Amino acid sequence: MSARVCGQPQLRQQLGWGVFKLPLVHSVDTLWTKTYGGTSTEIGQSVQQTTDGGYIIGGYTGSFGAGSNDFYLLRTNNTGDTLWTKTFGGTGDDGGYSVQATADGGFIVVGITSSFGAGEYDVYLIKTDTNGDTLWTKTYGDNGSEYGYSVNQTADGGYIITGVTDNYCPTTCVLLIKTDSTGYAPIGINYLNPAVNESIKVYPNPAGNVFYIRGSYALPAVLELYDITGRKIIREPIIKNLQQIDVSKLAGGVYFFSVTGNNSLIGSGKIIIR
Known about the structure:
Blueprint: E1 19-21, E2 34-36, E3 42-49, E4 55-61, E5 70-76, E6 82-88, E7 94-101, E8 107-113, E9 122-128, E10 134-140, E11 146-153, E12 159-165, E13 173-179, E14 191-192, H1 194-197, E15 200-203, E16 210-215, E17 221-226, E18 232-238, E19 242-246, E20 253-261, E21 264-273
């Protein structure tokens, strides 16, 4: 069995910091080591073995690309020799944190970008083919900062991303984003902050034709209801601290709601409609 290590090396190389990959045997004897990089800083954040026995490495580079830092994707053979490298990004600060092989033989990479998107930093998702060429890119975020730290392909062919956000939260919140196979996701329902959710009471749950939403939040506010695919079904102004919501025309199933006011998230959660 071998192990793969990807991260910041502890020794400065002649060409600056490099990405290290160290396959190890049980007795921790080194089989081989490789460094990859240029004259600036390269950091390896994620590594996965590919079906042909090689490796895919994701991280960021300061030596190559268009900006101060860019996504850095490296594909190697089973002995760590470079097959190809790719950079992704703009003129700002961009970097990859997680890479995974996908069912079609390509790769999905997630990280952060200040070159594209709406905020200071946004989640940056990149889908490539088997040669690392871009098929599509997506950004997710709002006015503040969102960071994507991990991505996996789901059984339905979409993707699940975890990270953090400082939007709608006193400090930071866990960020969970579910996308379809093309990267589409409604960012508005994916902030997870149980402390905020405690200010909202929704009942009955499960609900029939109507449910009630109650809270001590400032008015007016806005309720948005999404189905399990992330499609927005209802957007309704909240003008009372106890308000009835008519869901009689909706099919039974699981739905997600969010309540916002003064450009901030007041609460969010899940409701089942019978």
